[in-house]
Design a protein that fits this description.
Chain lengths: 259, 280, 375
């Protein structure tokens, strides 16, 4: 039995190695001097970081990514929250269809979202703009935000709201002073997660972006282009950015749900 | 009082309808419409003809891509489920809550590292001159051709879906009532019987949902089959990209896309039906 | 290897300066002295610092590139953007006619460009002139033949397209994922060199398809630009169809054992040309840039472009590279007497300009390519 326990832990460890191997590889190669990554490694260098981050267009891409991530995350979170609240509070006809509409976007392959979005946004005159990417990422992020907010609302005693109403508070007042404060941690973590989703998304952004590139689109172009190790350097920085957002979200969920 | 009350719910209900209508249903509906359009001189012209459907449905390469994608995504879902299960089982039953929480946290991390960068890293790792073959070489094995094969693509799919599948399985296994398992033991069930008669049926929903997600993600992915599978053969997603690239044939790409969505939904509904079905 | 480093350092230096100059105002409020932006639609590399850096610094302009991956992709991108989005379009020569037909480009003033300096073969490039009106100016070109790993195949073996069927490269033959160059080469192998491998009868087209299909068991993958690079570099692919020195040239400089030759059956020429995007308001600076790229200085940059090397259509370009970098001139055949001298091979009828199919529709070729890929 003990042997089986050890084996099962080794198995879990092996699975984690598989999952993290590519991430570590990319970090390692971002500091490797060779133009084309092969073993044995060359020597240690920060050259690729310097090259990448001395390029104004890389900074511009980061700026674009941050703008897009911020706006898309704000919109997704708002949309997610109102939808989650609707689901939590109300029952109505066609609610199943309503929820399906809310939750379907992640099931549509990204390539198809990109194709459809570009055609549609092109008609609206929004293709090639950051607004276009923000719209697309909001559609993709909102279901995640909704799921997070919904989980939090689940923990709220439904009688709480009713009690506030009975005490004469208007629904608006109750929303502002009871429901939203209770949901704040979920709102923040939904914001962080949807920002991270947006910060990493490249297929839809590639279709829609035109001249306004985000960081992942730039990575895709390098991969389609001359496969420069800058890709690892930029990738590592993106990884650190996203992981910061995720840790932030995680800490907030853990801390608040502990209290 | 009553009038004020009737406004309030709609403030929460309507935004989603407007937004999804404008930016989710709208684009998809346009895509469906587009599949009946024509392309003249690299420009699309609204029309209502079945030419694109005739054309794609009658092509051998479309159906080749269709079946290979379906097959690969199913294989990926099966493999991911089987590979993930022992790990999820360990995480659910054999470790402390803290370890489990951290494990889940670390499994979330990969979602937020650029999938492209990870695929590129696999290109390096799987290459014939890469580290994995170098290690195998020391052991007197190989070299194996892994890149630009189905194996390469499968490694990519696993990278994409395994973390999610493990998380979903772990949650559903951890949620099983321990008393149930102990009851099985007390009634003298063997380890195997407990697993197949108690644990797996109880976690059925999570297992199936995990597999469905693995299927959905692999089915739509174009990075792995392209960068790790060498487009050999092309999957539906690659076919979409190829089709848009060649001669502005968006209507035909739309046909491929619609076929993909129909297939995905069919599989998802059947699977979800199987997950919740018998409970009714 | 040494060259590569120096190029990178210089590139790093220039971009460093440009980066510092640009990022400082970004932090403060002054967007006022912002440089003129030129939106360029091009293959990867054409708006990178090694090409445009000095021009940007000297003229206070900033190139914003949108890189495409193939002519169809390029047309699609223009079609989806409002007129005037792209000021300058670098396209493959065979797509100029389509750009023109679709009304995406403006007529150009021939007197502005040094056509006297062009080799006579390139003065009247097909499709660039409509009667006496100029619509596009060729800036560089290159040849597509057999690209191979020199440790797997000998140069003699590579002198025929038949080497793709060689047992030694089984499962290791890669395709650049675009039908025109690949099928053009197959057409040449089938002996369709007069008038052009792209101008073939239905019967010949059938034979080309059959021959191509027979290559399937040898094929290891279909790659975009980036994939072609890395798979040749890491030895995943030992021979590559549909490409030439524009890929292997970069890898050679990096020390990879790869090379390209134009085989006996002949090669296909790719050509890149500048066109002015319809609706632009920046004619003056765009013309200045095109003139700069056609000058000896610009041609030396173009020949040694970091993303992929090219050949020069101008006599002064040849002279300039022979002085600036004799090794590169010799390597690429831009010296009189080389057996890979592009002008000589062109005159001998061994080089054929890549074209769109003349007797079949582009769609037929494209369809066949899709079939071949899934077969």
């Amino acid at each position: 039995m003990r042997m089986a326990d050890i084996l099962s832990r080794v198995y879990v460890a092996a699975l984690f190695v598989f999952v993290f191997l590519p991430i570590l590889t990319s970090v390692v190669f971002s500091f490797n001097s060779d133009r084309f990554p092969t073993v044995p490694l060359g020597h240690f260098t920060t050259h690729w970081y310097e090259t990448a981050f001395s390029r104004p267009e890389v900074w511009l891409a980061f700026k674009n990514s941050l703008i897009v991530a911020f706006c898309a995350a704000s919109l997704s979170t708002m949309l997610g929250f109102v939808t989650a609240y609707t689901d939590f509070r109300y029952g109505f006809r066609f609610k199943t269809a309503y929820l399906a509409l809310a939750l379907l976007p992640p099931t549509i392959p990204l390539v198809i979202m990109g194709l459809a979005m570009l055609a549609w946004l092109g008609r609206l005159g929004l293709s090639g703009t950051l607004i276009g990417i923000i719209i697309a990422h909001t559609v993709m992020g909102a279901p995640f935000a909704m799921a997070i907010c919904r989980m939090r609302l689940q923990q709220m005693d439904p009688a709480l709201e009713a009690a506030a109403w009975n005490l004469g508070a208007s629904p608006w007042r109750t929303m502002a002073s009871v429901v939203i404060p209770f949901s704040t941690p979920a709102l923040i973590s939904a914001f962080c997660l949807t920002a991270a989703v947006s910060f990493d998304e490249f297929i839809v952004a590639w279709f829609v972006s035109g001249l306004n590139k985000t960081v992942p689109v730039m990575i895709l172009e390098i991969l389609q282009g001359n496969v420069d190790p800058q890709i690892n350097a930029i990738g590592t920085v993106v990884f650190l950015t996203s992981i910061t957002l995720v840790i932030l979200a995680q800490l907030l969920i853990l801390r608040r749900s502990a209290t | 009082m009553k009038t004020r009350f009737s406004v309030y719910p709609y403030v929460w209900r309507v935004p989603l309808l407007i937004w999804q209508g404008l930016f989710f249903i709208g684009p998809l509906a346009l895509m469906v419409a587009m599949s009946f359009w024509l392309v003249k001189n690299y420009r699309m012209e609204p029309d209502f003809v079945f030419k694109n459907w005739d054309k794609m449905m009658s092509r051998g390469y479309f159906w080749d891509a269709y079946w290979i994608t379906l097959w690969r995504a199913s294989l990926a879902a099966l493999l991911a489920t089987l590979i993930a299960f022992p790990a999820s089982y360990t995480l659910a039953f054999k470790v402390s809550d803290t370890v489990r929480r951290w494990a889940v946290f670390f499994l979330i991390v990969p979602f937020f590292t650029s999938y492209l960068v990870r695929a590129y890293a696999w290109q390096v790792l799987l290459a014939e001159s890469g580290p994995i073959n170098a290690i195998l070489g020391y052991l007197g094995l190989g070299p194996f051709t892994m890149l630009n094969t189905g194996i390469g693509a499968m490694v990519g799919y696993m990278t994409l879906v395994l973390p999610l599948v493990v998380i979903l399985q772990t949650f559903s296994l951890a949620a099983i009532d321990r008393n149930l398992i102990e009851a099985a033991w007390n009634l003298g069930a063997s380890a195997r019987a407990t697993l197949f008669k108690v644990i797996i049926p109880s976690a059925r929903v999570g297992l199936i949902i995990g597999a469905v997600f693995a299927f959905i993600l692999s089915y739509g992915d174009f990075v792995s089959p392209f960068y790790l599978g060498g487009s050999k053969p092309p999957t539906m997603s690659i076919l979409i990209i190829d089709t848009t690239k060649s001669g502005q044939q968006w209507p035909r790409a739309a046909v491929v896309a619609i076929m993909m969505i129909v297939t995905l939904f069919t599989v998802a509904f059947v699977a979800v039906g199987a997950a919740y079905g018998r409970r009714k | 290897m040494k060259k590569q480093t120096s190029v990178l350092t210089r590139r790093g230096f220039i971009t460093g300066v440009a980066g510092a100059a640009l990022s400082t105002p970004m932090l403060s409020r002054a967007w006022a002295a912002e440089p003129t932006v030129i939106n360029m639609l091009a293959w990867y590399g054409h708006a990178e610092p090694d090409i445009v850096g000095e021009f940007e610094a000297a003229n206070n302009v900033k190139f914003v590139p949108k890189y495409y991956a193939g002519g169809d992709n390029m047309l699609a991108l223009i079609a989806q953007s409002p007129p005037g989005t792209y000021d300058l379009i670098l396209s493959d020569a065979e797509f100029v006619q389509q750009l023109n037909a679709a009304g995406y480009i403006e007529q150009m003033d021939a007197s502005l460009y040094p056509f006297d300096d062009f080799f006579p073969e390139y003065q009247n490039f097909p499709g660039h002139w409509v009667d006496d009106d100029l619509w596009s100016v060729m800036v560089r070109y290159g040849l597509l033949g057999v690209s191979y790993n020199t440790e797997a195949l000998t140069r003699e073996e590579a002198m025929s397209y038949n080497c793709f069927w060689n047992e030694k490269v089984k499962g290791k033959v890669g395709h650049f994922d675009w039908h025109l160059p690949n099928l053009g080469q197959m057409s040449l192998l089938m002996g369709n060199d007069k008038p052009s491998p792209f101008d073939i009868s239905e019967d010949a087209w059938g034979a080309v398809q059959e021959k191509t299909m027979s290559l399937k068991p040898q094929v290891g993958g279909y790659f975009d630009y980036g994939g072609t690079f890395s798979s040749l570099k890491n030895g995943e692919m030992l021979a590559m169809c549909g490409i030439g020195d524009w890929i292997t040239g970069v890898l050679e400089k990096d020390g990879a054992p790869v090379a390209s030759v134009i085989p006996e059956e002949g090669g296909v020429q790719w050509t890149e040309s500048y066109s002015i995007g319809k609706g632009t308001t920046k004619h003056e600076i765009i013309n200045k840039f095109i003139q700069y790229m056609l000058s000896p200085e610009g041609q030396v940059k173009s020949i040694q472009m970091a993303a992929y090397p090219g050949l020069s259509p101008t006599k002064s370009g040849w002279k300039a590279i022979q002085e600036a970098n004799p090794t590169e001139a010799a390597r690429s055949g831009m010296v009189v007497g080389s057996d890979q001298d592009p002008i000589k091979m062109y005159q001998e009828g061994r080089v054929h300009i890549r074209d769109i199919p003349r007797q079949q529709s582009l769609e037929d070729w494209n369809d066949f390519w899709s079939e071949y890929k899934t077969a």
